[in-house]
Amino acid sequence: MTVDFAATRALFDLPQDVIYLDGNSLGPLPRATAKRLADCVQSEWGQMLVTGWNKAGWMAQPNLLGDRIARLIGAEAGTVMVGDTLSIKVYQALASGLDLLPKRRIILSNDANFPSDLYIAQGLCNSLGPDYQLKIVENDAIEAALDETTALLMLTEVDYRTGAKFDMGALTEKAHQVGALTLWDLAHSAGAIPVHLSQTKADFAVGCTYKYLNSGPGGPAFIYAAPHLIDKLRPALAGWLGHADPFNFSQTYEPKKGIARMRIGTPPVLQMAALETALDIWDLVDMEDVRRASIHLSTRFIAAVEASCPSLSLASPRDAERRGSQVSFSHLEGFAIMQALIARGVIGDFRAPNLIRFGFAPLYNTEDDIDSAARILAEIMRDDLWKEATYQTRAAVT
Ligand SMILES: *Cc1c(COP(=O)(O)O)cnc(C)c1O
User: Fold this and answer.
1) What is the DSSP letter of 385?
2) In the chain, what is the greatest distance between 2 CA atoms, to the nearest angstrom?
3) Which residues of the chain have pLDDT under 50?
């Protein structure tokens, strides 16, 4: 039961005269979300007050939404829980993984990983004691660095800067060969590419919903654990809503059965309502169709930009199979170039030191978007429009 992408595009409320190629940072607003949020505020919170936890089903949402995300990332029902932020879910997965392998003290990651993932891992190691270590290596040294001291291999499947995609299956297998566990960050995978968590035997995965999944700014994160691990997990952030019987208010912690033990505290009800509405669109599509369309758009964009902008160099893998759903080009003046693009209605983003980054989301991006964006970029480069003084000043969020 899949629909075509002209139909899904009509389900988004995109501003006129904007070409939005930054859904990899913040997904756009689904048309149905404003009304759903208004209903949640007025009819649920406003009228039901505290009874909304039962009557409106707020308390069950983290599980239900987790099961809907599971389909998009190749996971079984009952293995994904929604809540908190991605950084916190990274912490939870790492702490649980280290706890499962108490003789091993090393978290292995790569230097291109997203800073928050590395900071969280470092902070966790610091709090566990001097034996624990975050080891950071370059991408091509990962396999060689895996050994019987490695507890967890922590990688972001799709590089947030270059869009380069790791081979989740192959690296998970390498990690398992030395007895290590894997944690995959799906921030740039969920809703961007098909993910096969159960098939690849990944141990843990985490991701956010405000990027490709379109749950809105501050939307909750999710965490996955492989079915055979779930009932062995001892949550480090053991909160009352992960307790077997939270309303018994017991003094001693006892984890809930299943992935629900990864819940911590009160879930963000309004943000979950927004996620629920966004997932109504995802329910209409198949990730393989999304992938095919995404490769078509990104390949078309690369060809157009390379044909007309010789000073921009492709910073993403040329082989579409080795990319996620984003493409970056490098240029020393990347910041100003992106400002000039945004001023002309083409919204991508800039990642220091020199990358301009474009995300492709077939749910709402069309071939026309891609052609217009490439044409506008070509004009900016041909006429040096980025040199204007107004494009040189940086705001707090790039
Ligand atoms: C976007 C992103 C984050 C952000 O984490 P938050 O806790 O949601 O702010 C973390 N890691 C990666 C890899 C990301 O792409």
Assistant:
1) G
2) 69
3) none
